[in-house]
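Q: Okay, next protein. This is GntP family permease from Enterocloster hominis. I've checked the sequence twice, so it should be correct. Can you predict the 3D structure?
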Amino acid sequence: MGVLLAFALLVILMYKKVPILVAAPVCAALMALLSGLNVLSTLTGDYMDAMVGFIKSYFILFLICAIFGRIMDVSGAAYSIGNWLGSRLGARYAIWGVSVAAFVLTYGGVSCFVLVFAIYPIALVLFKEANISRKLIPGAIAAGAFTAPNILWGSPGLCNVIPTTYLGTTVKAAPLVSVICSIFFYLSANAYLIYENRRMQKKGECFIPTEKISKLLKESAEKKAINPVVGLVPIAVIIIVLNGFNMDVNIAMLCGVIAGYILFWKNINDKMDTLVVGAQNAIGSIMNTSTAVGIGGVAKITSTFTSLVNWVSNFSGSPLVSWAVAVTVISGACGSGSGGVALACSTLADKYLAMGVNPEILHRIASCACIVLDSLPWNGVMITTMAACDLTHKEAYKHLFMITVVLAFVNLCLCVGLGLMLY
């Protein structure tokens, strides 16, 4: 009960715009208190161990991704790619334009935490031309960035990388299942947004700019133009190094950073800015994520969590179903897809491998399952996305929920079904 009350409080605090850096330890303390644990030792011990452990494992990746995202942003490369896609698709297909741009950049290795800052100016231009409500911008970004790139063959995303550590697989695990689920997830997310846009248009909801947004639109229009094909080169470098040469994701991202500097050197007025702001973005992003992981570290030692893990991992029937439920629930409890899949794999992977279950389908199900309940209101990526788009939970979270929870669950069911048939 203490675990549930703590997460309920976290939801309330998030809706009240309390920073997760403050809300997370408060809720972790409540969880410890209601679970009969020593509050001080839990916060300074288990909470901090989980938080720092995540930072230790992934800070370098977050840092490189943030610098890469900053290079793509300030050089105008990300805007040029998005603007090119938008001009080809036209205002009528503005939602597709934003989601395609988000997909390309995310699959190319731009972190979801920094991607939104590069995509948002593009989305504003396209949505203004199409007269689409700004409330759908986070959903359009999510449709491209939070769907297929998490589960697609060869993706450098954390949800696709972390399982390799525990299952002995590669980012190319279960290719057929990966491709089918990615296509379904991406198309269904965009279909939902198109339906919502039509419904909102009938109600008279359209694009309403604020003074801040009008200024941002003007600044975007003044950015130096870059050939979009050249803009895609650093992304291609990352994909080739990661999947063609099977190099470590950190090395692949670093190669993308180097390629970006070489190609866009003249377009970056303040070179130091890419390092300074990139580092600041990395710190903010990993702190938001690690604080959520810290709550998971506290939840992990409670009797409620132990009972929950035992319950979901002992389902009768196919181990693929129990594995899917286990990863989903644990990721939801952690409030982080990357933190949840790491925790689930570290605690349960050996058990399922000992059963003789194919590690590739375990990998693919894990990458699908960890993004079903991780995006609840307190999730760091959700908070960052809405804040960057200058929208509140009340205005935008509904659409994020439909894509990253409801459709993500349907996609997980598809993945498990394909696993049962093919493995």
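A: Here is a summary of the prediction. The chain has one domain: 2-422. The chain has 21 helices and no strands.
Q: Noted. On to the next one.
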